[in-house]
Amino acid sequence: MRLSRYFLPVLKETPAEAQIVSHRLMLRAGMIKQSAAGIYSWLPLGFKVLRKIENIVHEEQMRAGHMPMLMPTIQSADLWRESGRYDAYGDEMLRIKDRGGRDMLFTPTAEELVTDIFRSHVNSYKDMPLTLYQIQWKFRDEVRPRFGVMRGREFYMKDGYNFDLTKEDALHAYNRHLVSYLRTYERMGLQAIPMRADSGPIGGDDTHEFLVLADTGESEVFYDSAVTDLSFGDRDIDYSDVAQCAGVMEEFTTKYARTDETHDEALFHAIPEERRRTARGIEVGQIFYFGTKYSEAMGATVQGPDGKPTPVHMGSHGIGVSRLLGAIIEASHDDNGIIWPEGVTPFHAGIVNLKQGDAEADAACEAIESAMEALGLEPLYDDRNERAGGKFATMDLIGLPWRITVGPRGLKNGVVELTSRRTGESEELPPEAAVAKLA
Ligand code: ATP
Ligand code: MG
Ligand code: MG
Ligand code: MG
């Protein structure tokens, strides 16, 4: 991509309305534009990162054997009356009337909708286990939308729903989700700690939230510092292996880690004092097991092996896809801008031409651009006629992990400069070698 042709409306001034760094940087880097309170347009750079994050979520859900689908954003109120949640959900639900006066709503979550699909088509235990998921826009009329995409009213969420014959099977689905979430967040360069939480309006017994530690987080959390030493890494996982998934679950949830809703002072004080931590966190996901709550209310039963109708055991599992952009930036930035982890960066490297219009420099930049593309890497080539300082500032702001700086002086010695955004370290090397380092 050539920057001269890209739509990157970078802001020089720090927007006054943005209270936290991720919101400021997303506005300054031209990633989003607010259209109404808590409702945003995703400009090309923001949209590109959103897609990267979405793809990782899809890959990890499909790897776990979960099936992608898509449900509508607008629902009829009828199903919510069946479950009893139409009144219970309260003011966060955006209620709409169609021209015929029928009550409709904009999806805040989709337990009812997916349970209706399930009960319409699945009659036998032989068609289970089944986990369906979607990545779809949600709307919640938050009292206080703020912090940009972190607490929007419209937001992009992955919501998955498991249907199982027994509680044991449903708990395996719960564990599968925990494992797939650990992998998902790690691929985005994030440490998200599973913490015992409260189930709120979804209802149910078992639930964990995944929290990214950050001073700007809205949740208060309490944990044993030993949980921050855990990482999933690239170990092999067989999602059909019940014991293996349960083992990961135990490994990651046995040490004390809770949100304020479930915090227990007595248990907390059983941890050695030097390991006790109180901090703030950003909720980037949550998993629930809620048994037969919806299947009983909505008549989602299957014929069991004994021939008798039995209500299915369910759980639901969410990832805040759009909130993740904010969480990643909160966790990875410096005074000059964003520092994208490799897994989600919108472009792999920026090419900065120090002397646009110089035949040799232009040709070298174009060669680097083609060489990167040949390796399946996406470069962003700053081919504008601007001062070097301005080009560097833009690259630092938008946070690409690598910058290749090309100028006539270096080219005379056959070298370009490769700079790491994270460490700021540079080395001079031939253009081919610089590209090879990115692969
Ligand atoms: P919160 O406690 O932040 O209000 P929640 O517990 O109500 O979130 P869930 O119902 O668990 O949210 O939804 C799954 C995920 O969707 C959350 O873990 C969070 O990452 C994301 N999410 C929820 N509400 C918002 C929002 N208003 N804006 C952006 N993301 C959100
Ligand atoms: Mg909420
Ligand atoms: Mg919550
Ligand atoms: Mg939640």
TrEMBL record:
InterPro entries per record: aa-tRNA-synt_IIb, aa-tRNA-synth_II, aa-tRNA-synth_II/BPL/LPL, Anticodon-bd, Anticodon-bd_dom_sf, Pro-tRNA-ligase_IIa, Pro-tRNA-synth_IIa_bac-type, Pro-tRNA_synthetase
Keywords linked to the UniProt accession: Aminoacyl-tRNA synthetase, ATP-binding, Cytoplasm, Ligase, Nucleotide-binding, Protein biosynthesis
Molecular-function GO terms, alphabetical: ATP binding; proline-tRNA ligase activity
Enzyme Commission code: 6.1.1.15
GO BP field: prolyl-tRNA aminoacylation
Catalytic reaction list: tRNA(Pro) + L-proline + ATP = L-prolyl-tRNA(Pro) + AMP + diphosphate
EC class name: ligase
Gene3D superfamilies: Anticodon-binding domain, Bira Bifunctional Protein, Domain 2
Family named by the database record: Belongs to the class-II aminoacyl-tRNA synthetase family. ProS type 2 subfamily.
Protein name (Swiss-Prot/TrEMBL): Proline--tRNA ligase
UniProt gene name: proS
